[in-house]
Design brief:
Elements: H1 4-11, H2 15-21, E1 25-32, H3 38-47, H4 55-63, E2 67-73, H5 77-82, E3 86-93, E4 101-102, E5 111-117, E6 126-132, E7 140-144, E8 150-154, H6 157-166, H7 186-195, H8 197-209
Antiparallel strand pairs: 1-2, 2-3, 4-5, 5-6, 6-7, 7-8
Helix pairs in contact: 7-8
């Protein structure tokens, strides 16, 4: 039987092994949850009726009830000064028990939001599943900043997870998808140029075309 790590690797194009192969990089934490029970999914949907978890997220939870992959580097100035690896990236999906409601203070957007990624390492805000009132089973994935600004990241969970993996979960990677004429934060650009330069090029081309 395959281990949970092996199953997670298969689901994420071997992202853990790729990170471990990077120069001066190491995995700081890898927590892959056991499969969520069907009863857990049913309880969530009953509590949040008439909303339903999308099929792709249900499939994910059927394999892993939450994951967290946190990684860092040892060669940075901060790492040398502190004697500890500097956290650079985090890929996290909250377990179903932590998929809790998040308030949206904007009355012009009826619906409901639930916390998909509340990693303490996050720098831009929290990632949420955002349901429109007319779409009780097809939520999108959005970023909510600390100042309650919203940015759409993906139209479904699968595309969001794929984007997160392609960006290696680099802290603040979501900013690469947020145009608005704002420059990419310097630290995000630095880490992306080192560890996923092809993705950085694609993101910058997309931002320039907006």
């Amino acid at each position: 039987a395959k281990t949970r790590r092996e199953l997670f690797e298969r689901a994420t194009l071997h992202v853990v092994s790729h990170i471990e192969s990077l120069s001066n990089a190491s995995v700081q934490r890898l927590d892959v949850g056991a499969p969520a029970s069907p009863e857990g999914v049913a309880t969530w949907e009953k509590h949040n009726s008439p909303l339903r978890l999308p099929d792709d997220l249900k499939s994910f939870y059927a394999s892993f009830d939450g994951v967290e992959l946190r990684w860092g580097v040892t060669g940075s100035r901060q790492a040398r000064e502190t004697g500890k690896a500097q956290t650079v990236g985090c890929i996290r999906v909250n377990p179903i028990g932590s998929l809790t409601r998040v308030d949206d203070p904007d009355p012009r957007r009826p619906g409901a939001c639930f916390a998909l990624d509340t990693s303490p390492a996050a720098t831009l805000g929290i990632v949420v599943l955002r349901y429109a009132a007319s779409q009780p089973s097809e939520p999108e994935v959005w970023l909510r900043s600390p100042s309650h600004r919203w940015q759409r990241l993906a139209d479904c969970f699968t595309r969001y997870l794929r984007l997160c993996v392609m960006h290696l979960g680099i802290l603040g990677w979501q900013a690469a998808l947020c145009g608005c004429g704002e420059p990419l934060p310097r630290d995000v650009r630095c880490w992306m140029s080192l560890f996923c330069p092809e993705r950085l090029l694609l993101d910058e081309e997309a931002r320039a075309a907006e």
